[in-house]
Write a structure and sequence with these properties.
Serine Threonine Protein Phosphatase 5, Tetratricopeptide repeat; Ankyrin_rpt-contain_sf; lipid-binding; mainly alpha; ANK repeat; globular
Length: about 250
């Protein structure tokens, strides 16, 4: 069904997409605010919004958690991307009513490039953008130009401890990843929650990003603040299999 048939304008879709992305970042950094049933609900709608209907093979009979996730996602095959995003953000708001204020307070200026429902007029002019802004925009050309002309450290961390690599792996931008690795970006830097860029790539299920990172001098034993290594993270069976080939 077309967006206009749903009564949703292009501007509304853009606004919803931005809020959805901000909400999904909040969920990933605040999983303790949700129970397992809520996380499963959110997972299914995250996958539907990002990847569309589930066409991957059903996990094996002994992969109980994987089957639950697969079934939750599969059940949404007739739901539109916009419906999935709306339900996702509504669930987050219902569970943590002030999540948006909390998230922006925690993220600080690093989130200024991501407009929200209450701050949709915020626009950063190109001349005022930082390396992180260009990175979040997915603009590899301008990011590289900025790094070169300002001599910004490619491993600089924002207030959440995230580097450009963290943001790139969160977004799933393989072109930017290769460019940053070419500039000697360190794949082993951990953010304030102890997560490496690979933690992000595995969690967000960006298989091409995971494959590329595994070819670097990455430390596969890094643990986040909860003691989780990359092999402990819920992800796709394909990525799980890929990681098993590298982790001894």
């Amino acid at each position: 069904m077309a967006d206009d048939e749903l009564g949703i304008s292009e501007d509304d879709v853009d606004e919803l997409s931005e809020l959805f992305h901000l909400a999904s970042n909040f969920v990933r950094s605040s999983t303790n605010s949700f129970n397992q049933e809520q996380l499963l609900y959110l997972y299914a709608r995250f996958k539907q919004a990002n990847d569309g209907p589930c066409f991957v093979s059903k996990p094996g009979m002994f992969d109980f958690q994987g089957k639950k996730k697969w079934e939750a996602w599969k059940s949404l095959e007739n739901k539109t991307r916009e419906e999935a995003m709306k339900e996702y953000t509504s669930k987050v708001t219902l569970t943590v009513p002030d999540w948006n204020l909390f998230d922006r307070r925690q993220a600080g200026d690093g989130w200024v490039g991501v407009s929200t429902m209450s701050n949709t007029d915020t626009v950063i002019e190109d001349r005022n953008k930082t390396a992180f802004d260009w990175c979040k925009d997915g603009d590899t050309k301008h990011l590289l130009h900025y790094l070169k002309t300002t001599k910004t450290n490619v491993n600089k961390q924002d207030e959440n401890g995230m580097t450009l690599l963290h943001w790139t792996c969160d977004r799933g931008n393989i072109e930017m990843l290769d460019a940053l690795l070419g500039l000697k970006a360190d794949p082993n830097i951990q953010d304030n929650d102890g997560q490496s860029p690979l933690h992000y790539a595995v969690s967000c299920e960006h298989q091409d990003i995971v494959e590329r990172l595994l070819k670097t001098s990455i430390n596969l034993k890094l643990q986040d603040v909860d003691g989780l290594t990359i092999t402990d993270i819920e992800t796709t069976p394909e990525i799980k299999h890929l990681l098993e080939q590298y982790v001894t």
